[in-house]
Amino acid sequence: MKIETPDPPGPVTVAISLGALLAVWVVAARLTADPTILPGPLAVWQVILEEAASGELGRHVGATLRRVALAFAAAMAFGTALGVALGLSPRFDRWAGPWVTVALNVPALVVIVLCYLWIGLNETAAITAVAVNKTAMVAVILREGIRSLDPGASEMAKVYRMSHIARIRHVVLPQLWPFFSTAIRNGIAIIWKIVLVVEFLGRSDGVGFRIHLFFQLFEIDHVLAYSVTFIAVMLAFEYGVVRLLETRSTRWREARAA
Fold first, then answer.
1. How far, in Å, CA of 90 to CA of 97, rounded?
2. Long-range contact list for 239-242, CB < 8 A, 24+ apart?
3. Which of 29, 113, 176, 241 has a beta carbon 3.0–4.6 Å from 40's, enabling a disulfide?
4. In the chain, where does DSSP find H-type helix?
């Protein structure tokens, strides 16, 4: 039985789905009838506008995005290199594979605390902790991608005497795109959450720092304001960048099926 890959939701579907989620929030806030426990969307929106007008929202969201970008770039670079090495060398995979498994199962909180203790409460420790947490995941995904490469396509490239660069561009990368897009999506989805924990524990700026501050003051509307803002940024990245990469990664399969 052939299983068809579902088409990604269009902008109208996404808007309706998110609108339904917003409606659930409105109903839940009215049923709670206590803004100190669950403020409604309008109250949270008002806080967002106030924080944006003061400049605090942009400054802290920008700090978090910078950490996410740096940690993501480091995790993708080191994870890709390690994953390719593991996939190409069975001997290396036999010896280093258990290390990767250990890294996958070390709790993120432990890595964060150790980095802060060893390196100090600084940016280097924060970014290193996040990158180390996700490097192993990227390595495992790319290792499986290397193992799944079609040897027939490589042989065909040799027959047509394609250059090394042409093989990588037209044979290897199209097959690895689905794995890259999976690593990107999972990496971004997890990294930004870990960055918030890093900021919660030991930074003086960022969305996680602000959530920690307003948590201590029990100002739930401000906690939700910063949370919703950053979730909106990540949703924009998901549908504006990751989904486009995912669509590109499946073109070669559709062409092959045709």
1. 10
2. 239/11, 239/14, 242/181, 242/184, 242/185, 242/188
3. 29
4. 11-32, 41-54, 56-88, 90-105, 108-119, 123-147, 151-159, 164-167, 173-202, 207-216, 220-237, 243-249, 251-257
Choice among 15-29, 73-87, 208-222, 226-240 with the minimum mean pLDDT: 226-240
pTM: 0.81
The tokens for 121 are: 């409460």
Q: Cα–Cα distance between 177 and 200 in angstroms, integer?
A: 34
Largest CA distance in the chain: 72
pLDDT value, residue 157: 60
Integer Cα distance of 125 and 129 in angstroms: 6
Domain 41-257: which CATH class? mainly alpha
Query: Would you say residue 70 has pLDDT above 60?
Result: yes
